[in-house]
Amino acid sequence: MSSLWERPAQELLQAAASGAPTPGGGSTAALTAAFGAALLEMALNITLKKNGEAAAEALRPVLQTLGSLRERLQTLADEDVRAFRAYVQATRLPEGPEQNEALAAAGKASMQTPLQLARTALEALDLAPPLATQVHAEVISDVGAGAAILEGALHAALLTVDINLPHIPEEEREGLKAERDMLEARGRDRAAQTLRQTRERLPG
């Protein structure tokens, strides 16, 4: 399977709008989240250029962390497509123990990939509130935009978690629901903090 990232943007957009099952909500959320993280990186890179060494010591480690998170989000876009395709393949197997085992494995992967996406998006969002006070004034809106995009992607990922919960053994659902609710609440809080601080620094 070729990577979603190797496809032209226009082709990718048309695929998302078509009747094809992929890219779906999870992989599109991962694509979007990667761009949200990239906007935070851009704001940092421009700040480092404008503020020089005065900003470097504090901001370079954050920049490196964001780069790693973005790369992980990029990987998760393709992982989501693979998880869905594995589930479709499992449904086509003859009924019996082999299919049951394949469906269980595919169902778990379909849950874990968007869950990991939500966790990673939240890690990036955790970095956003301080950045709203640290970046150069000319790129403050990009920090707010990045946080807003990451929050939207996080919610989209959690919807994918929600639709896959029924496929998870009942004894595992309570813990997953608790983590899902924590990710949603914390992501909303971090995004709200960032947007509030962004607006406070916007001119006028």
Fold and architecture overview:
The chain starts with 8 loop residues before the first helix and ends with a helix. The chain has a single domain, classed as Four Helix Bundle (Hemerythrin (Met), subunit A). With 204 residues, the chain is mostly helical. It has helices at residues 9-17, 25-51, 53-91, 97-134, 140-164, 170-201. Helix 2 (25-51) packs parallel to helix 4 (97-134) and helix 3 (53-91) packs antiparallel against helix 4 (97-134). The mean pLDDT is 91. The protein contains 6 helices and no strands.
Summarize the helix and strand pattern as letters.
Answer: HHHHHH
Rounded to the nearest angstrom, the radius of gyration is 19 Å
The helix-and-strand class reads mainly alpha
Specify the CATH homologous superfamily.
Formiminotetrahydrofolate cyclodeaminase monomer, up-and-down helical bundle
Structure summary, number of beta strands: 0
Detail the poorly predicted runs.
Answer: none
Region (Disordered): 185-204
InterPro entries: Cyclodeamin/CycHdrlase, Formintransfe-cycloase-like_sf
Protein name: Methenyltetrahydrofolate cyclohydrolase
Organism: Deinococcus carri
